[in-house]
Amino acid sequence: MLLTKEDIAKRIARELKDGYFVNLGIGIPTLVANYIPEGINVEIQSENGVLGMGPFPFEGEEDADLINAGKQTITTLPGAVFFDSAMSFGMIRGKHVDLTVLGAMEVAENGDIANWKIPGKMVKGMGGAMDLVASAENIIVAMMHVNKAGESKILKKCTLPLTGVGCVKKIVTELAVMEITPKGIKLLERAPGVSVDYIVSATEANLIIEGEIPEMQIN
């Protein structure tokens, strides 16, 4: 069973620890806010100047003045605060964020990440991604394992312009949970019903496989 984007977010939410300050990037990462485990209190930060984001609003309850860095409408939790970009990036560059969850176009087996530009396509700029990957101690990538052409996005070496070098710690896709180690990418978990052989065939990078690989726990 291939996981949905929501399932990927649910699995990443299991990585959250009580008291964490968390930055959620654009795309799949923003969904993590909807699946914070019960009993876990975290502060979600958005680089446009919000600390204390909640889940997405229900339809009809959106406030156009409350948005995240991806310009999606959000909710805020009691005690949330708003500030300017200088303060926001001071938090990021000062290493006050415990966990950063980012999307990616490509990740290499040494932890390099490319997530901001496809050559030849118009792009507004790198945004906050460069600061996040340069400053964060713990980066989890939420991404699809293959592109629309069925080609692997987990590579031996990134082909797109890099956002950061050797910074990714863990990857969660619709197929697997993987960890970046000094020896390469280690397969930790597989999506329910998905075989190890299938994951290997969908991965250009070399995977380290040790013993039985358990199925992911989503709920």
TrEMBL record:
Alphabetically list the UniProt keywords: Transferase
Cite the InterPro entries for this sequence.
3-oxoacid_CoA-transf_B, CoA_trans_fam_I, NagB/RpiA_transferase-like
Gene Ontology MF annotations: transferase activity
In the record, the note on similarity to other proteins reads:
Belongs to the 3-oxoacid CoA-transferase subunit B family.
What is the recorded name of this protein?
Succinyl-CoA--3-ketoacid-CoA transferase
Which species is the source of this protein? Flavobacterium pokkalii
